[in-house]
């Protein structure tokens, strides 16, 4: 039995969050949604296969969230943000994001990036996606 891959979506805009969630679910992904960084940190304990993060979340900066996620997870992170400045992209990638897509974007663009990230091979030697302390 094939288990659907889990995506954690961190987006504070309710309408955009719903559109992205529906697109991911229609493509067969299990989707957990968070409107805040705090909720995202809690939901990250479910070991998602991918995390999609908006940088403009209300309770913490998205760069800080990426840094905190990276402290314990190797899960790929895709940033989907309206911050289109080169400095924001560099900061997000420097904090540990794996890819960056600027808003506005089409659902097909987002889904292409999701599929591309998720088809990357697993870490060598069956290493877990979480760091062990």
- Low-pLDDT segments, ≥5 res: 125-133
Structural class category: alpha/beta
What fraction of the residues are assigned to beta strands by DSSP? 15-25%
Q: Going by CATH, what is the homologous superfamily?
A: Response regulator
* Gross CATH architecture: 3-Layer(aba) Sandwich
Average per-residue pLDDT, rounded, comes to 90
Number of strands: 5
Counting structural domains, the number is 1
The coarse overall form would be globular
Report the biggest beta sheet as strand number plus sense, adding barrel if it closes: 5 strands, parallel
User: What is the number of helices?
Assistant: 5
Notable characteristics:
five-stranded parallel sheet; alpha/beta; globular; Rossmann fold
Structural write-up:
This protein has 133 residues and is of the alpha/beta class. The chain has a single domain (6-121), classed as 3-Layer(aba) Sandwich (Rossmann fold). The chain is built from five helices and five strands. Strands 2-1-3-4-5 form a five-stranded parallel sheet, with helices on both faces. Helix 3 (62-70) links the parallel strand 3 and strand 4. The longest helix is centred in the first third of the chain and has 13 residues, at 14-26. Residues 125-133 have low confidence and may be disordered.
